[in-house]
């Protein structure tokens, strides 16, 4: 699982952090193809590590998809913020006011991610036994942590 998690997170991290370093942006088709692959890889990782019964699968996967849709929206906001930062970084146009705005955006994104996670728990508890709900939360948290690590590693500090 570690190798698959690292590969998936590395790919996502590079895609999300690419605007900081790349002058040329990937086309929408290239970005969408990469995101679709990551989504499929993530679902595979989850499926291989959850050992669900048929009844649990029927209850779990709609909850999973709903949560992933919410994460997608949060990720899109994060990508926008990273692209904004990348432009400021590349053009050396960061100001205190712009930095404050980025901090506010980051905190809002993190707050919304926590709210989404909190809304997931009762749905998971309804769909799965407690240990399997906890296992899914662990898998999800590990994946998010790996992505955040990659982002932290790839994005340079404010000058």
Number of DSSP strand runs: 0
The averaged pLDDT comes out at 85
Low-confidence stretches: none
Shape: elongated
Q: What is the alpha-carbon Rg in Å?
A: 17 Å
Tell me the distance between the termini: 37 Å
Q: Output the number of helix runs.
A: 5
For the biggest sheet, the summary is: none
Helicity, in percent?
over 70%
How many domains? The number is 1
Present the secondary structure layout.
Blueprint: H1 2-21, H2 28-50, H3 54-90, H4 96-127, H5 130-154
Helix pairs in contact: 1-2, 1-3, 1-5, 2-5, 3-4
How would you explain this protein's 3D organization?
The longest helix has 37 residues, at 54-90. This protein is an all-alpha fold and 159 residues long. The protein contains five helices and no strands. It has helices at 2-21, 28-50, 54-90, 96-127, 130-154. The mean pLDDT is 85. It has one domain (2-154).
What key attributes describe this structure?
0% strand; mainly alpha; 159 residues; 5 helices; 86% helix
Q: What's the quick description here?
A:
By secondary structure, the chain is an all-alpha fold. Helix content is 86%, strand content 0%.
């Amino acid at each position: 699982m570690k190798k698959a998690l690292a590969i998936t997170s590395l790919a996502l991290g590079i895609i999300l952090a690419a605007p900081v370093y790349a002058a040329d942006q990937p086309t929408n088709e290239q970005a969408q193809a990469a995101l679709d692959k990551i989504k499929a890889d993530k679902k595979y990782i989850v499926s291989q590590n959850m050992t669900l019964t048929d009844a649990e699968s029927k209850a779990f996967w709609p909850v999973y998809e709903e949560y992933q849709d919410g994460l997608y929206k949060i990720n899109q906001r994060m990508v926008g913020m990273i692209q904004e930062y990348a432009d400021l970084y590349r053009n050396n146009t960061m100001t205190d006011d712009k930095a404050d705005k980025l901090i506010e955006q980051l905190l809002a994104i993190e707050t919304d991610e926590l709210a989404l996670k909190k809304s997931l728990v009762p749905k998971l508890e309804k769909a799965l036994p407690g240990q399997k709900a906890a296992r899914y939360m662990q898998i999800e948290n590990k994946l998010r942590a790996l992505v955040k690590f990659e982002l932290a590693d790839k994005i340079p500090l404010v000058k």
